């Protein structure tokens, strides 16, 4: 079965590490260290993924067809040849969108519960 024919919902829910790696790769391909830095920045320092978690997640994401290793390389004078660059696949994009929709639906339910009334749920201020 081709990867793009798979049901993205079958992989949900994603772990926070996997979802944040997908988010880090949403705009451009990156190498491992830059993915860790992007996650730290995106989460305002609240989520830090170490090398073990990152590369274990990447291994599974490669196997699941969410990401692929990029063949393109930056200018060798500006890069370390040991770095591996990763990018989202079309299926990875579908899974990221499905997870975002799942989280949005969950947040909609949270907003209806009295336990959370008065709590700012503006994610920019979280």
Structure description:
By secondary structure, the protein is mainly α. The protein is 44% helix and 7% strand. The protein has a three-stranded antiparallel sheet with strand order 1-3-2. Helix 1 crosses helix 2. The mean pLDDT is 89.
Defining key terms:
126 residues, mainly alpha, Arc Repressor Mutant, subunit A
Give a summary of the structure in a few sentences.
This protein is mainly α. The protein has a single domain (7-116), classed as Winged helix-like DNA-binding domain superfamily/Winged helix DNA-binding domain (Arc Repressor Mutant, subunit A). It contains four helices and three strands.
Write the layout of secondary structure elements.
Elements: H1 16-24, E1 30-31, H2 32-42, H3 51-64, E2 67-69, E3 85-88, H4 90-110
Antiparallel strand pairs: 1-3, 2-3
Helix pairs in contact: 1-2
InterPro entries: Metal_resp_DNA-bind_regulator, Tscrpt_reg_PadR_N, WH-like_DNA-bd_sf, WH_DNA-bd_sf
Domain Transcription regulator PadR N-terminal: 21-96
Protein name: PadR family transcriptional regulator
């Amino acid at each position: 079965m081709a990867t793009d024919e798979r049901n993205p919902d079958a992989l949900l829910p994603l772990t926070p590490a996997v979802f944040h790696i997908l988010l880090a790769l949403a705009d451009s391909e990156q190498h491992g260290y830059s993915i860790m830095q992007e996650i730290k920045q995106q989460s305002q320092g609240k989520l830090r993924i170490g090398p073990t978690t990152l590369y274990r997640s990447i291994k599974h994401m490669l196997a699941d067809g969410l990401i692929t290793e990029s063949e393109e390389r930056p200018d060798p004078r500006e890069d370390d040849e040991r770095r591996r660059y990763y990018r989202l696949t079309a299926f990875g994009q579908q899974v990221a969108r499905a997870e975002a929709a799942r989280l949005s639906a969950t947040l909609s339910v949270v907003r209806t519960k009295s336990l959370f009334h008065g709590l700012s749920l503006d994610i920019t201020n979280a």
